[in-house]
Amino acid sequence: MASRAPVATGRLLLGVRKWYYNMCGFNKLGLLRDDTILEDSDVKEALRRLPEGQYNDRMFRLKRSLDLSMKQQILPKDQWTKYEEDVHYLTPYLEEVIRERNEREEWMKK
Predict the structure, then answer these.
(1) Following CA atoms 73, 76, 82, 88 in sequence, which dihedral angle do they give, to the nearest 10 degrees?
(2) FRET label pair with 10: which of 20, 45, 71, 91, CA 20 to 30 Å apart?
């Protein structure tokens, strides 16, 4: 008889995602997932398109995390970014920039 592989349920998968999110550690510094994206040319363009308020919030989070890192400290647990509160604020802008770049590259091939 062939053994059946266990089926991952939605709750189990969500539990693994939350565990991994907490193990990454950026949330202990008050960062969001989109704050940790490596800044290449596409990300820089997406950042340029961010509304001023979101850009200023990002800069505050980054500066606070650098300060905490230099002091080798983390935020109090009640100030950690929770999985449910993490907003992908940069992703829509980044997807738009990548789509435009791909269209431009396709146009140049013609």
Answers:
(1) -50
(2) 91
Q: What 3-state class would DSSP assign to 35?
A: helix
Q: Return the pLDDT at 8.
A: 59
pTM metric for this prediction: 0.81
Q: Return phi, psi of residue 6, to 5°.
A: -65, 140
CA quadruple 38, 24, 74, 29: dihedral sign? positive
For the four alpha carbons of 42, 35, 65 and 49, in that order, the dihedral sign comes to positive
Q: What percent of the chain has a predicted confidence (pLDDT) above 90?
A: 82
Judge whether residue 12 has pLDDT over 90: no
Task: Return d(Cα 97, Cα 48) in angstroms, integer.
Answer: 11
Tokens of 62: 């980054």
- From 95, 89, 88, select the one nearest 45 (Cα to Cα): 95
Contact, 88 vs 35, CB < 8 A? Answer: no
Q: Tell me what percent of the residues of the chain surpass a pLDDT of 70.
A: 93
